[in-house]
Amino acid sequence: xxxxxxxxxxxxxxxxxxxxxxxxxxxxxxxxxxxxxxxxxxxxxxxxxxxxxxxxxxxxxxxxxxxxxxxxxxxxxxxxxxxxxxxxxxxxxxxxxxxxxxxxxxxxxxxxxxxxxxxxxxxxxxxxxxxxxxxxxxxxxxxx
Length: 144
Description:
Strands 1, 2, 3, 6, 7, 8, 9 and 10 form an eight-stranded antiparallel β-sheet that branches. The protein has a two-stranded antiparallel sheet with strand order 4-5. The protein has a single domain, classed as Roll (Pnp Oxidase, Chain A). 10% of the residues lie in helices and 53% in strands. The chain has 144 residues and is mainly beta. The longest helix has 9 residues, at 70-78. The model is unreliable at 1-6 (pLDDT under 50). It is elongated. The protein has helices spanning 4-8, 70-78; strands at 10-16, 19-24, 26-28, 32-39, 49-57, 60-65, 87-95, 100-115, 128-134, 138-143. This is Phage tail protein. InterPro entries: CHP02241, Phage_T4_Gp19. Pfam families: Phage_T4_gp19.
């Protein structure tokens, strides 16, 4: 039996079109929502029709301490205003031992927001960065 920390302490390795952006310690926003239109039917007072009209995908936010891999992220993000081609992203949740616990592939990824560290010489803290990605859905995913 494995140690609890090996099973549940995870980090996230991200690649864009097979180019690694490095590891992140936080991943939020992996999700989808079915958009529903409500329609009342004349003479039917028992319920309102719930008609699915599409799927909306939430943006994914990844955070980490600033590392040498931050330069890769900066190059990819700063190319966006000049017409970055939408890419495929793969996010792998890995255990402390490096084993892949789960994997999500995202279609047509575009970086939409980056926030860097708060620089305060009077405050001793790890400097972090966060990137937010928009996408057009999941290509595939699995959990180990």
